[in-house]
Predict the 3D structure of the following.
Amino acid sequence: MIRTPSPATGDQAVEQLIKYVGADVAPRVTPADVEAATKTVEYVKHVSVSGKVLRWAVITTPNGFSVTGRPSVAVSPENDKAEVGESVALENATDELWAFLGFELQTRLAAAAAKRAALPPTPAGARAYTGTKDVFARPMTRAEYNVYRGWELPADEDGNDKGYLVEYVDGGKSNHPAHAGYISWSPADVFARAYSPI
């Protein structure tokens, strides 16, 4: 049987506490991550020789990975109800999925840290980003970029446009004496869609 899980009330309470005490200032696994990682839930039922009813929830993720947790089981078979057993089984499987998502997040953070360590020193006021290329970038309006390059702002451009001075770390011949790599200007929205901090 395949069903779509509903959010756990306990998780919502923990989320409220996390936000209340400010424990969400760095990367972490969230209920939204768990929900996004849950493509389907299947319930497997087994009746033991002693008459106990065991139920497992099998969560399958969008990439095809499946995870399950400890089974649910009532001490007295007369107390077995599918709704309760499946709820407990899903909670147990979700606990296991949290752990896998935590491992996946830690792997990404470690890879980003290794990538940062391999970069040359970050220029003052800039931050390292990755996208199709590795770049250094710092906030700069269109007008500020034109002044930085010694250019006149074209009459048909808005100098107040927010954006970034972008320096390419892994390619492009230097086009400014203060930079080792090729520099350009990118509008903030275009930059945000193409790059993420490392």
